[in-house]
């Protein structure tokens, strides 16, 4: 098992330090990063935590998944690799646009 965990459904007040503190109960935390919006700096409600070992990661998943923080049940599981997104923001094709094809 990989040591990197996805943590979702976080309260928007959760910070990196808080996350590190909560996960440290299950082993050594190599890194903890709450994802934030680039423009506003506000939390996006999810984070990534990297534990020092696979055993620590499994322990953290079983101990933290479903736990309530700030009235929200955490989702904790093994992080998956990031999927490539299309260049250009993903806009293209479909939708309402162009053409004078009227079919009433």
From TrEMBL:
Domain RRM: 3-81
GO molecular function, one term: RNA binding
Comp. bias regions, Gly residues: 87-104
UniProt keywords, alphabetically: RNA-binding
InterPro entries xref list: Nucleotide-bd_a/b_plait_sf (IPR012677), RBD_domain_sf (IPR035979), RRM2_NsCP33-like (IPR048289), RRM_dom (IPR000504), SLIRP/GR-RBP-like (IPR052462)
PROSITE patterns per record: RRM (PS50102)
Domain of life: Bacteria
Stretch list, region Disordered: 79-104
Alphabetical list of PANTHER family matching this protein: HETEROGENEOUS NUCLEAR RIBONUCLEOPROTEIN 87F-RELATED (PTHR48027)
Protein name: RNA recognition motif-containing protein
Organism encoding this protein: Sphaerotilus natans subsp. natans DSM 6575
């Amino acid at each position: 098992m990989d040591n990197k965990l996805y943590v979702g459904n976080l309260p928007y007040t959760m910070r990196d330090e808080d996350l590190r503190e909560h996960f440290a109960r299950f082993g050594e935390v190599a890194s903890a990063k709450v994802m934030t919006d680039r423009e506003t700096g506000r939390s996006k409600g999810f984070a990534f935590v990297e534990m020092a070992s696979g055993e620590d990661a499994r322990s953290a998943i079983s101990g933290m998944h479903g736990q309530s923080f700030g009235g929200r049940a955490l989702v904790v599981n093994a992080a998956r690799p990031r999927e490539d997104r299309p260049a250009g923001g993903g806009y293209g094709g479909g939708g309402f646009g162009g053409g004078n094809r009227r079919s009433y």
